[in-house]
């Protein structure tokens, strides 16, 4: 008997056995795939929260009140919370601070300002330099227990404002033996333009430098150093000897802990010799 005939005979010998239904059971592969999908869905939290953060950019500590912007994102676990932001300079001195709270209607994420301000719209006691911004978050749970956590800190720099130095001479074509007055003035950068140097930023030193024909570098002019007065000006009279046919001068503001240094434009002087025939 052939194999095909034998299979047919066996099928006839067991008439009561029916083919297994396809819809009653799932294959092991389908069960594993369903379990993996369910596990992946269950791993996603119901309410994901962004991480707490502090961000701020570098700024300029003008000699006026500076409100420096700061962005923050806190994640209190209740509606009763407070957030205290503070700054510390690299030398350990305290900087400005600000406190936020749910009781004041503040948002747990947003922006605020650190006010580098003192009396009379000035920068007060604050000085330029490197600062560290820190924040402490406190919140009260439904059981009345207070929880405290620190947000990641952020570093930023408050730079010195720029200065602008100007040198003028009473005469740039002097004759030998003629007196010349040197005037130096300085202005300081502000958010609205250039302003006079505040008294709180003084003393501020300066010097005048000179360069003769063929010289590559400027050298300090004897008697040409001093301290700006309260108006941010300085002047001194010199007698032009006329030993050089030409010379160049520039003024340099030395800077201090609050203000940056700067150098004026070069001023050129040409000696005018008397015509011997005119004498």
Walk me through this protein's architecture.
This protein is mainly beta. It folds into two domains: 53-159, Immunoglobulins (Immunoglobulin-like, Sandwich), CATH 2.60.40.10; 163-278, Immunoglobulin-like. Helices cover 9% and strands 45% of the residues. The chain contains two helices and 17 strands. The longest helix is centred in the first third of the chain and has 15 residues, at 28-42. Residues 1-23 and 30-48 have low confidence and may be disordered. Residues 1-26 are annotated as: Disordered.
Short description:
The chain has 279 residues and is mostly beta strands. The protein contains two helices and 17 strands. The protein has two domains: 53-159, Immunoglobulin-like (Sandwich); 163-278, Immunoglobulin-like.
Structural class of the secondary structure composition?
Answer: mainly beta
Query: What is the number of domains?
Result: 2
Sheet bearing the most strands, described? Answer: 5 strands, mixed
* Total of DSSP H or I helical runs spanning 4+ residues: 2
Mean pLDDT metric: 85
Low-confidence stretches: 1-23, 30-48
Report the count of strand segments: 17
| CATH architecture classification name of the largest domain | Sandwich
CATH topology of the largest domain: Immunoglobulin-like
Q: Distance N terminus to C terminus?
A: 152 Å
**Portion of residues within helices:** under 10%
Helix and strand sequence: HHEEEEEEEEEEEEEEEEE
The CATH homologous superfamily of the largest domain is called: Macroglobulin (MG2) domain
**CATH C-level of the largest domain:** Mainly Beta
Strand content: 35-45%
